[in-house]
Design goal:
This is Fe-S oxidoreductase. With 452 residues, the protein is α/β, with parallel strands linked by helices. The protein has 4 domains: 8-129, Fumarate Reductase Iron-sulfur Protein, Chain B, domain 2; 133-172, no CATH class; 202-251 and 260-329, Rossmann fold, CATH 3.40.50; 347-451. It is 46% helix and 6% strand. It has helices at 27-33, 54-59, 66-77, 89-96, 103-107, 114-129, 133-139, 141-147, 149-160, 162-172, 210-215, 217-229, 254-258, 262-281, 291-298, 307-316, 320-329, 353-357, 361-368, 397-404, 408-414, 425-434, 443-451; strands at residues 202-207, 232-236, 285-288, 317-319, 347-350, 376-378, 420-422. The chain has a 4-stranded parallel beta sheet, with helices on both faces.
């Protein structure tokens, strides 16, 4: 069996263990699947609140748990699902409902990485069945946003005309009940001159992701302002003349990764690493604003077969809130934050699944405590349900809303006048569409407000 991702990190997993139950085919990929110890703790919803696994939590279908998916994958790799096991409908349903939240990598006793296992599964299925137009559309978001101005207008037209939404569902499988996020007219463009920072603490590199660049560019400006206020010189990572497609902004490749398009994801990753490696070698911290995009650099690239370059950049890649918390602990962070005027209710804090998966919510709490007299409340660590394009897909729209009903939507209804913070673009989109009118903001925006 040819695998599309690099599973060599699992080369020795389970070796010498008679009870490891490693499937007959699949090589190191089979070993990655078999790290599950079948304790079935992931099927116990009473064990406490967590992320894992959103679709199991709302469906109670065992196949939708991490362990349930492992058992189906083992059957596939053992030849029990026929000659083309990756097209088996039972396996397909279970894997399609995985939202790649990475919760299992943190909460599972043996850190099953179902998010990356799903990427391999999708790559295998894509090779057999090809790609739908919908998959190509969502996966190619970074390309059409840059190249085709007319396409940038389609989401707005579709959102305002019911008949277009209906056609979109009929022919492309995009739910007519959900609004598409609309790109702004003026995406972020790197300033021609960098601001001089007197008495600077150090240099940092800001990696600007596709979603923030084209949909929420003010967040980038807020983050730069906050970092500069803390006396950091901010370098915006952008392509140079000998980068492939030098006129197109960098993109982490998250949309390609999420749809199992490994070759395309690798091409994006190579563009990013070419620019970021010199900064990593110089010891500069690489900061990301969008959790899944930064974690592509820090985690997913290691599975794309990019070797030591990916490892080196991963060592220096960190989320915005993690960086601030780290600098605070090191006593290097000096932010002249002031009390926020007019706060009458605690701000609700919705964590992105990937923030929970890497423990970044602790960093959020540490930074929020810096704002004088600030009141806030963390929501339960449950998935918002949007999960990239998942919540927009016709066959997934209903279960995506069920996921949101676990924690997010009840909290919004109970606190309709409360401000809300969400660092994840998908989370903000879910709140805007299904909430009670609150306008969610990023931590960078909150901190800029507190700077006065």
């Amino acid at each position: 069996m040819k695998t599309y991702l690099d599973w060599s990190a699992y080369e020795n997993a389970g070796m010498g263990d008679a009870y490891a139950d490693i499937p007959k085919t699949g090589g190191d990929f089979a070993k990655a699947v078999a790290v599950c110890i079948n304790s079935r703790q992931c099927e116990n919803k009473e064990q406490g609140k967590g992320v894992m696994c959103p679709s199991f939590r709302v469906s109670d279908i065992v196949n939708n748990s991490t362990g349930g998916r492992v058992r189906l994958l083992k059957a596939a790799l053992n030849g029990e699902l026929g000659n083309t096991p990756f097209t088996d409908p039972t396996l397909a349903e279970a894997m399609d409902l995985c939202v790649a939240c990475k919760g299992c990598k943190r909460e599972c006793e043996n850190a099953v990485d179902m998010a990356m296992i799903k990427v391999e599964y999708l790559a295998q299925r894509n090779a057999l069945t090809g790609l739908s137009w919908r998959t190509r559309f969502f996966a190619s978001t970074p390309h059409w946003l840059h190249r085709y101005n007319l396409l940038k207008k389609i989401p707005a037209w579709r959102n305002r005309h019911t008949w277009l939404a209906t056609l979109g569902e009929k022919f492309f499988g995009i739910s007519a009940k959900r609004r598409l996020p609309e790109p702004v007219n003026a995406p972020f463009i790197k300033p021609e001159t960098a601001e001089t920072i007197p008495d600077k603490v150090g240099d940092v590199v800001l990696f600007v992701d596709t979603f923030t660049r084209y949909f929420d560019p003010s967040v980038i400006q807020d983050a730069v302002h906050v970092l500069q206020s803390a006396k950091y010189h901010v370098i915006i990572a952008e392509p140079i003349s000998d980068t492939p497609e030098p006129d197109r902004p960098l993109c982490c490749g998250r949309t390609f990764i999420a749809h199992g398009m490994v070759n395309e994801a690798k091409a994006e990753a190579e563009r990013v690493l070419k620019i970021l490696l010199p900064h990593a070698e110089a010891g500069r911290t690489i900061i990301g604003l969008e959790p899944p995009c930064l974690l592509a650099l820090r985690d997913d690239y290691k599975s794309l077969g990019l070797g030591k370059t990916a490892e080196k950049v991963a060592q220096h890649a960190i989320l915005f809130e993690e960086f601030l918390a780290r600098e605070l602990t090191a006593k290097r962070l000096k932010l002249p934050l002031k009390p926020l005027s007019g706060q009458t209710k605690p701000m609700l804090i919705q964590g992105h699944c990937h923030q929970h998966a890497v423990g970044a919510m602790k960093s959020m709490r540490k930074i929020l405590k810096l704002i004088p007299d600030f009141q806030y409340e963390f929501l339960d660590p449950a998935c918002c349900g949007m999960a990239g394009s998942f919540g927009l897909e016709a066959e997934h729209a209903d279960i995506a809303l069920q996921m949101a009903e676990q924690s997010l939507l009840p909290a919004l209804r109970a606190n309709p006048d409360a401000p809300i913070l969400a660092n994840g673009f998908s989370c903000r989109q879910q709140i805007l569409e299904t909430g009670t009118g609150q306008q969610p903001i990023h931590l960078a925006t909150l901190l800029r407000q507190a700077l006065g």
